[in-house]
């Protein structure tokens, strides 16, 4: 099972088409009668996240209590990789950078690769004021929920979670990108904290 959408040619040997906001091309379903939105899959993901709530909160508080600056996220590296091990992922510690890591899970043969980012670093003097402990656990939760969904619904594919160091002034994701960490991903997701705002005057 795949999402069933592509842009441009139906020829599977053609180069992938990249859509840009100012393009006039519209997505062409490769499987016109396939369901793209699946409420049952969404319910499975939400159920998994609710089940993980207590564990994720504990993990977040632990990271928050041990703030580490860019490229020094050794404690966060160790507890996050241990957590992903426990949840059945294949974990690569010190992936391309000393404090980066990767956790992957594959179901079946082929399918898409969905990437997820988990930031970990803190700020000098103010610790986790930017909430990277929350970004870390959000990535962890989403990756585990995707894993369970692709197993439950027998969807061929891979979920790949990257522990990304040095967001605050160290360009950790840029370094990982240049080293090929994102190669092969169909999409990569990340949660970022935002303060609610109003458009009213």
- Percent strand: 15-25%
Tell me the Rg in angstroms. Answer: 18 Å
Helical fraction equals 25-40%
Catalogue the unreliable spans: 1-12
Global mean pLDDT: 87
Order of helices and strands: EEHHEEEHEHE
Largest sheet: 5 strands, mixed
Assembly type of the chains comes to: single chain
Sheet with most strands: strand arrangement? 3-4-6-5-7
Topology, number of strands: 7
Structural class: alpha/beta
Distance between the termini: 47 Å
What's the number of helices?
Answer: 4
How would you sum up the global shape?
Answer: globular
Keywords:
7 strands, disordered N terminus, globular, 201 residues, five-stranded mixed sheet, alpha/beta
SSE topology:
Elements: E1 5-7, E2 27-29, H1 39-65, H2 74-86, E3 90-93, E4 101-107, E5 112-119, H3 132-152, E6 157-164, H4 172-178, E7 187-189
Parallel strand pairs: 5-6, 5-7
Antiparallel strand pairs: 1-2, 3-4, 4-6
Helix pairs in contact: 1-3
Question: Could you characterize the architecture of this molecule?
Answer:
There is one protein chain. The chain is α/β, with parallel strands linked by helices and 201 residues long. It is 34% helix and 18% strand. It has 4 helices and 7 strands; from the N terminus they run ββααβββαβαβ. It has helices spanning 39-65, 74-86, 132-152, 172-178, and strands at 5-7, 27-29, 90-93, 101-107, 112-119, 157-164, 187-189. The chain has a 5-stranded mixed β-sheet with strand order 3-4-6-5-7, sandwiched between helices. Strands 1-2 form a two-stranded antiparallel ribbon. Strand 3 (90-93) and strand 4 form a beta hairpin. Helix 1 runs antiparallel to helix 3. It is globular and about 55 Å long. Residues 1-12 have low confidence and may be disordered.
